[in-house]
Backbone:
């Protein structure tokens, strides 16, 4: 299934990484986690003991399901939650036994009977039912204790039961929506992954226990029912919908929806597709329908395996917990990931919708056609779905350049999250809670990145053929990672790809141990050779570790800046060090490893190579691949933050940005520069940082401006949002003026603002707005009934810089005459203090005078004053701010301790300390570099010139401080 997506995540990723550093686990923990991973390598966990011990959550293997006949009765149309069900399971006995064990959850009143399929004349056998809550085992045993089931005998187990539609968006659940006439509508729908099918009907709820399903639903004739398969028209009647039998499939992929949904439909290459959602939204489904058609065709073409079912539907559910779910033939979504209109929706949402469809549709092959042997290999379906969410979009919409988005989101998210405590991709889990815990970066973004690495290192031809083999040989069956490795090996052999080790050895070094390598590159400038050392990249650079991988390598240089062929030219063979002597790099050439940044690792170069790269970037930025430019910045930032590289090297690399016009590098740079802006905005030398960023951003900002340009490159839409945000954040007057005019034109003359630019236009437009504009936005806020619009207005008003406007704005939080809700009131201050020094000052002024009234906003356990003080502490970066906040906390503690939590003061001090710790280490080198850079007329600085200048400037600062 698809996880919840975040919109501004590159910045969030870096911030999270910075804040997580203190939580690095001791080395022993890491080793222990990796040891668990090696159990996977031995495969020992698969040979499970069938001892039925209480800590064994796996079903016994004595019987297996062949086919299910599921019949359900629901009255959901009037809001009734009770339902009843009947399931008949054809099963085979594989080990002689006298019990049959299934899963069940939150269902009751079981009545069961067993009928032999081998002897039609034999009498039905009455069964006793036993339910064990912890493992959710439903066990049937003949009432007559002399009866047992012979090996290879075949039976039909029929169970009647009752249940309640859940209201927590799991299992078989009820969902509601209110239409434009204020009428409430009810529907029943399903979400079974990972262990919730057992709530709708008793079943063998493990992914490898595939069977055929025939589903029948009885419902009110006012509602319709859809499921994985088309309706069996001959068997259905008014209020009874019977579906055609599915191929053999996993229980968690079954879905059915009883609703009043309406659909739109289309067909491509003979496969009909429909999109269902509540009535009245059909005109907003067009993009989802069209995307679905082309994405499915793109996947089918790449994989060379046709979609297995006769139809494919998508449905938008009003209440939905995940982002989306890949039920075979019936993918389900949150409604907001299904509706899109040109007039009101952003370009980012358009791309996200198609990306999510790519994810769910890729599952139709990875997970649905070929399922997992067990949840240990969750990555085997989620990694492919994540990778193909981009690959399918890249095939369908090559002009989107979607791998730039992959790079700044999933790829870097994986690098960040796998740099401290983490488990291997393959990791044994048993209980439903343990299984739920696997839905994160290590099962999604990391395997997508590792698969992408081998797609490039082995060549796309080998990868594509390997996947075709894997899907064809294992269709309607379940696999583990070794099946995948075998198919890739087969393809490599067939296409004559020579590898230095077997695919299973190479790939499992990535899937069965946590983390990824840091490659340290040292060049020999005399001989033209270079040496690569590997170790696990950990945020704590001093943590010892012995991990090694099979690392695919390739390189480009100033004399050979050709990035087209991303096949591995060399491998580090699970050894610590490799000297590459068959590639000669001349002394004055820069060297870049990892062409197109397709390998999943970080690279730390020697100082001289960084100097050559910086010089090369300034002179010929396009001699470096776009994603290599982005990754040079990202790696350098992480290396600076973890004490591996100097600030000077990072800033020297960033100096080339004045010639950068691509999204991925700017997105990365924006994240880095915004973090520096937060720390430095209270500094007396802030102007140097500000001017540096304005100089970098000006060229490209002048080209792109604040308005969309018809026919421009797709990613320019993303880039513009990034640039407007950054340029206005550091106070570019051009950004202020253009944004202000755009906002004024909209407020005064009704000129429409492009949806993609709306948030930025309001925030940027209010930074230096006169009172009239400010007041118009305030009026819009107070008169709007749209929650999203109101949130945009509040957030934007916090961007104001004028002291009087800010004073007025923060006071709205306690003004009882306005119509702000509690959550809106408590979002006012943070909109101001996180944005600027002026916003922080206004918040402190306000709370010093009104802390009691602000504290009184909360009722019960709500402590808004406590949250505000902690939040402000995170934005404090100067001594005077610190003194004021400390005094305020003292006052509240003495006169209103009830507004605080027990640990408020500790948290406030810790938040401020973390900022001052950063400043202690990083402020001086950054300011020194910036002063020297600007003094030197913005020309490039060599490392040695910099060292001299830095020393000189330090002396100057020291004397004048
Ligand atoms: Zn998924």
Residues:
């Amino acid at each position: 299934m698809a996880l919840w997506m975040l919109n501004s995540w590159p910045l969030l990723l870096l911030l999270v990484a910075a804040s997580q550093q203190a939580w690095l686990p001791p080395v022993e923990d890491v080793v222990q986690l990796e040891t668990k991973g090696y159990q996977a390598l031995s495969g020992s966990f698969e040979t499970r003991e069938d001892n039925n011990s209480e800590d064994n959550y796996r079903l016994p293997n004595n019987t297996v399901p062949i086919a299910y006949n599921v019949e359900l009765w629901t009255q959901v149309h009037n809001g009734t939650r009770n339902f009843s069900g009947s399931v008949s399971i054809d099963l085979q006995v594989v080990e002689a036994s006298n019990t049959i064990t299934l899963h069940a959850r939150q269902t009751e009143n079981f009545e069961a009977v067993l009928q032999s399929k081998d002897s039609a004349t034999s009498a039905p056998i009455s069964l006793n039912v036993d339910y064990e809550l912890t493992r959710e085992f439903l066990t049937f045993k003949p009432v007559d204790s002399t009866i047992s089931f012979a090996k290879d005998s075949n039976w039909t187990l029929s169970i009647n039961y009752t249940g309640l539609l859940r209201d927590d968006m799991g299992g078989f659940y009820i969902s509601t929506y209110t239409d434009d006439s204020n009428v409430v509508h009810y529907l029943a729908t399903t979400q079974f992954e990972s262990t919730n099918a057992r709530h709708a009907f008793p079943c063998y709820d493990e992914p490898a226990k595939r069977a055929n399903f025939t589903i029948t639903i009885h419902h009110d004739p006012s509602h319709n029912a859809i499921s994985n398969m088309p309706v069996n028209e001959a068997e259905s009647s008014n209020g009874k919908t019977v579906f055609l039998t599915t191929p053999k499939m996993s229980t968690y992929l079954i879905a059915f929806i009883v609703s009043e949904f309406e659909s739109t439909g289309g067909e491509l290459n003979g496969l009909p597709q429909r999109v269902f959602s509540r009535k009245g939204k059909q005109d907003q489904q067009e993009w989802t329908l069209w995307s679905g058609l082309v994405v499915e065709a793109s996947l089918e073409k790449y994989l060379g395996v046709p979609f297995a079912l006769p139809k494919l539907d998508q449905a938008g559910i009003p209440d939905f917990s995940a982002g989306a779910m890949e039920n075979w033939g019936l993918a389900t979504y949150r409604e907001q990931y299904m509706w899109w209109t040109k007039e009101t929706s952003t370009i980012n949402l358009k791309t996200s919708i198609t990306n999510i469809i790519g994810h769910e549709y890729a599952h139709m092959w990875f997970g649905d056609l070929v399922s997992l042997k067990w949840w240990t290999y969750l990555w085997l379906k989620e990694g492919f779905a994540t990778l193909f969410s981009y690959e399918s979009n890249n095939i369908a919409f090559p002009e989107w350049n979607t791998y730039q988005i992959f790079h700044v989101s999933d790829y870097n998210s994986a690098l960040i999250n796998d740099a401290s405590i983490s488990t291997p991709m393959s990791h044994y889990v048993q209980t439903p809670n343990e299984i739920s815990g696997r839905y994160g970066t290590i099962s999604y973004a990391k395997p997508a990145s590792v698969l992408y690495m081998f797609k490039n290192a082995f060549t796309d031809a080998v990868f594509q053929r390997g996947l075709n083999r894997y899907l064809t040989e294992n269709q309607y069956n379940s696999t583990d990672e070794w099946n995948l490795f075998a198919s890739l090996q087969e393809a490599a052999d067939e296409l004559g790809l020579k590898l230095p080790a077997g695919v299973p050895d190479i790939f499992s070094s990535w899937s069965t141990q946590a983390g990824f390598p840091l490659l340290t590159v040292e060049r020999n400038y005399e001989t033209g050779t270079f040496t690569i050392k590997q170790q696990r990249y950990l945020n704590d650079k001093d943590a010892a570790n012995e991990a090694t991988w099979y690392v695919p390598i390739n390189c480009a240089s100033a004399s050979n800046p050709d990035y087209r062929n991303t096949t591995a030219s060399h491998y580090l063979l699970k050894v610590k060090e490799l000297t590459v002597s068959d590639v000669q790099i001349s002394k004055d050439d820069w060297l870049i490893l990892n062409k197109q940044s397709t390998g999943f690792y970080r690279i730390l170069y020697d100082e001289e190579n960084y100097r050559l790269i910086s010089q090369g970037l300034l002179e010929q930025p396009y001699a470096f691949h776009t994603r290599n430019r982005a990754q040079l910045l990202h790696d350098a930032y992480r290396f600076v933050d973890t004490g591996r590289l100097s600030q000077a090297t990072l800033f020297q690399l960033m100096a080339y940005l004045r010639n950068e016009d691509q999204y991925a590098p700017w997105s990365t740079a924006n994240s880095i520069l915004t973090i520096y802006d937060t720390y430095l905005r209270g500094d007396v030398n802030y102007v140097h940082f500000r001017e540096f960023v304005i100089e970098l951003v000006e060229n490209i900002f002048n080209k792109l401006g604040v308005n969309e340009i018809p026919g421009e490159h797709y990613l320019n839409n993303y880039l513009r949002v990034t640039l407007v945000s950054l340029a206005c954040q550091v106070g570019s007057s051009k950004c202020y003026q253009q944004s202000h005019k755009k906002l004024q034109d909209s407020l005064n003359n009704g000129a429409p603002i492009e949806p993609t630019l709306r948030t930025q236009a309001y925030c940027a437009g209010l930074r230096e707005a006169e009172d009239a504009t400010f007041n118009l936005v305030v009026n819009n806020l107070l008169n709007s009934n749209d929650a999203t619009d109101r949130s945009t207005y509040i957030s934007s008003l916090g961007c104001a810089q004028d002291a009087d406007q800010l004073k007025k704005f923060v006071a709205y939080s306690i003004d009882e005459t306005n119509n702000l809700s509690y959550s809106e009131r408590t979002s006012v201050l943070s909109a101001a203090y996180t944005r600027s020094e002026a916003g922080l000052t206004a918040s402190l002024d306000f709370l010093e005078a009104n802390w009691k009234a602000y504290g009184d906003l909360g009722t019960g356990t709500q402590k808004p004053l406590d949250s505000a003080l902690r939040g402000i502490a995170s934005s404090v970066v100067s001594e005077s701010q610190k003194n004021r906040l400390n005094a305020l906390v003292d006052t509240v503690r003495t006169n209103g301790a009830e507004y605080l939590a027990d640990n408020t003061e500790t948290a406030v001090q810790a938040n401020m300390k973390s900022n001052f710790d950063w400043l202690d280490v990083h402020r001086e080198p950054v300011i020194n570099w910036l002063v020297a850079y600007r003094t030197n007329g913005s020309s490039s600085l060599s490392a040695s010139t910099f060292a001299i200048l830095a020393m000189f400037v330090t002396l100057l600062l020291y004397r004048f401080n």
Summary: The longest helix spans residues 904-935.
